[in-house]
Specification:
Elements: H1 3-10, H2 14-22, H3 29-42, E1 60-65, H4 71-86, E2 90-95, H5 100-112, E3 117-121, H6 134-140, E4 145-148, E5 157-162, H7 164-177, E6 183-187, H8 192-207, E7 217-219, H9 227-237, E8 245-248, H10 251-264, E9 273-277, E10 291-294, H11 297-312, E11 320-323, E12 326-328
Helix pairs in contact: 1-2, 1-3, 4-11, 7-8, 9-10
């Protein structure tokens, strides 16, 4: 029997059950009695570490990321850990890799260590096969789960994300309106975020009456930190596909495209325009500097931590907030 079960039986939210257990005053007498009656009937005893007993929490938050060498995930962990520390919370970081079994194992490990909450960094934790998301549902029955840049509808799961679809749609549309129609989309994962970016690219072409051509949507199967391999991949694609621009799903891929252009002697942006994604430090480490989408990472992390603190203080918090990205124009586009 968990707090999730109590909320279902009483017909109220988990946050309401938590407020009843905490003795909070902002619960009506009728609702309080309904929850207490269910607790009594079920013989529910809150976990010894639960905030509802009025004891100290563990003051510890679990953070899961798939790959700490990934610039986006590493920066997210940095911002989240810093904000949590400022709010007097400790962190336990687990790097899971991308396999389902390992993601399940580490999430269960953190729940069993009685952390107050878990933050999942990135959409890699959400699977297209919905049954593979059950491990998140199970964890959310015990503690709040927060998801950075992923979209998942579930009780006690809170999401903050950038609108990847709209951001790439706008970036691609900008190229088209500048007279460039042969645009290659380059991506290296099939996460929810990457597929939303791909969909944004496709929608931009469709809205402008341009054909969708499979050969112009290229999946790079290698390590996105291996920039020379990205350049070699584009060299292999180039003989069969003639394109005037590259829209990349992240800055690493875009920098690989810059290296490809230099290798082929292509003038940037006159012969090849390039747009990246994430507005990472890499965007100012190439020549010319990279036009890229700022996906508001620091803002997302700030919102995630604020939401978490609100939840742990038994406040009602929005379950999903979507931020708009911003195209930052630099030297790789007109």
């Amino acid at each position: 029997m968990t707090i999730y079960d109590i909320s279902e039986k009483a017909g109220v939210s988990i946050a309401t059950v938590s407020r009843v257990l905490n003795g909070a005053c902002n619960v009506s007498a009728q609702t309080r009695q309904k929850v207490l009656s269910v607790i009594e009937a079920c013989g529910y005893t809150p976990n010894a570490f639960a905030r509802g007993l009025g004891l100290n929490s563990m003051n510890t938050i679990g953070i899961l990321c798939a790959d700490s060498s990934d610039l986006y995930q590493a920066n997210a962990v940095y911002h989240i850990e810093r904000e949590l520390r400022q709010n007097n919370y400790n962190c336990i970081l687990c790097c899971t890799g991308y396999g389902l079994e390992d993601k399940q194992k580490y999430l269960n490990l953190l729940v069993n260590k009685k952390v107050d909450s878990v933050i999942l960094v990135g959409s890699a934790f959400i699977a297209d096969n919905d049954a593979e998301n059950d491990y998140i549902r199970e964890a959310a029955k015990e503690i709040p789960v927060l998801l950075l840049n992923g979209d998942f509808d579930c009780e006690n799961v809170y999401c903050a994300l950038c609108d990847d679809f709209k951001s790439v749609l706008q970036a691609t549309t900008t190229l088209i309106e500048n007279g460039i129609e042969d645009i290659l989309f380059l991506y290296d994962s099939k996460t929810h975020s990457a597929l939303r970016k791909l969909s944004g690219y496709q929608s931009a072409l469709t809205q402008k009456g341009l054909p969708l051509r499979a050969e112009y949507m290229q999946y790079f199967p290698g390590n996105h930190a291996d920039l020379p391999s990205i350049a070699e991949f584009l060299s292999a694609v180039a003989p069969a596909v003639t394109y005037r621009a590259v829209v990349a799903a992240d800055d690493n891929l875009a920098i690989g495209a810059v290296k490809f252009a230099h290798k082929k002697g292509l003038s940037i942006p006159n012969e090849l325009s390039i747009i990246g994604y994430n507005n990472s430090i890499l965007s100012t480490c190439c020549e010319p500097e990279l036009t890229t989408v700022d996906n508001r990472l620091e803002t997302l992390c700030h919102h995630i931590v604020n939401t978490l603190i609100g939840i742990l203080n038994d406040n009602e918090m929005p379950q999903k907030v979507i931020f708009s990205g911003e195209l930052v124009k630099r030297g790789t586009t007109f």
